[in-house]
Write a structure and sequence with these properties.
The chain is mainly alpha-helical and 310 residues long. The chain has helices spanning 3-9, 15-20, 24-39, 47-71, 73-76, 94-115, 118-142, 146-150, 152-155, 157-166, 171-194, 196-202, 207-210, 213-234, 242-263, 267-272, 276-303. InterPro entries: Protohaem_IX_farnesylTrfase, UbiA_prenyltransferase, UbiA_prenylTrfase_CS, UbiA_sf.
Length: 310
């Protein structure tokens, strides 16, 4: 086949392929938690400035995702869950993903700095760096604690939102960070328990691969127990209140029960019901985080009418 005919048969990426590089489902969670961090802050933000700030945070999250996909293209090809991503499937060239990630990173950080303040821009830049370099290039392939430490990248958005409004950091933003940070390990390990073969095939040192499933089940329980006081403690700050605390109690009991159920299982039970418990706990973990941040948002709305908070 001639070079010309090969070029003619080459797949041409469309906007949907490039958008998929930004991991839109993950971006939606980032945008939501960042928006809550901005809206619950004690300092009001002009709607237009707030819109620009959230846009920058979303673009920054998408940029780090594109850089992650560029770096992880080799292992993404080996996992069923990621084999259809734009780069391993051949829809987007690696160089394109790298260029998009770098360009969007610069755009998001600079615009956020100009529109808001240095701290917010610095936190966004650090988040992109941490996810793309510290987590993707080092932690993910070198240690079973990749998810524990790497979870910080996904925990920064509400802190960035808070910094946009206040220009600073406080116990409230630290606890919002801590909520996501402590939630991340049991959330991802529940996933790893039923996609174990994918990580093993790609050579990723997930805890299930390096320490086994029994150890992973115990760690899910340990981190869920450690998560509870962080989640409940947030309810006693200036952005908490009875509504948040009620939601937190219910969700933490639900999540904790799931973690206990996982810790009591063995491989035979998992194979028998096709990981039904692990899949359900993973789903609960998604509801868990959304419910907590939605409750914070509701508390902020109620305070506008003088009936929220303590």
């Amino acid at each position: 086949m001639s070079d010309i005919s090969m070029q003619d048969s080459r797949y041409e990426a469309n906007m949907g392929d490039y958008f998929a590089l930004l991991k839109p489902r993950v971006m939606s969670l980032v945008v939501f938690t960042a928006l809550v961090g901005l809206l619950v802050a004690p300092v009001p933000v002009h709607p237009f400035i707030g819109f620009v700030a959230i846009l920058c945070i979303a673009v920054g999250a998408g940029a780090s995702a594109a850089l992650n996909m560029w770096w992880d293209a080799d292992i993404d090809r080996l996992m069923k869950r990621t084999a259809t991503r734009p780069i391993p499937s051949g829809r987007v060239e690696p160089g394109e993903a790298l260029g998009i990630g770098m360009a969007l990173s610069g755009f998001a950080v600079v615009l956020l700095w100009l529109a808001t303040n240095f701290l917010a821009a610095f936190l966004l830049a650090f988040t992109i760096f941490f996810y793309a370099v510290v987590y993707s290039m080092y932690l993910k392939r070198s240690t079973p604690h990749n998810i524990v430490i790497g979870g910080a990248a996904g925990a920064f958005p509400p802190m960035i939102g808070w910094a946009v409004a206040t220009g600073g950091v406080s116990i409230e933003s630290i606890l919002m960070f801590g909520l996501i940070f402590m939630w991340t390990p049991p959330h991802f390990w529940a996933l790893a328990l039923f996609v174990k073969s994918d990580y093993g095939r790609a050579g990723v040192p997930m805890l299930t691969e390096t320490h086994g499933r029994d150890a992973t089940r115990r760690q899910v329980l340990i981190y869920t127990i450690a998560l509870v006081p962080v989640a409940l403690g947030l309810g006693f700050t200036s952005i908490g209140g009875p509504v948040y605390l009620a939601v937190a109690v219910v969700m933490n009991l639900w999540f904790l029960k799931g973690a206990i159920d996982i810790s009591r299982r063995d491989d035979a039970a998992c194979e028998a019901d096709k990981h039904k418990v692990e899949i359900n706990v993973f789903k609960v973990s998604l509801y868990y985080l959304f419910a907590h941040f939605l409750a914070l948002l509701l508390e902020a709305a109620l305070r506008q009418y003088g009936i929220g908070g303590w």
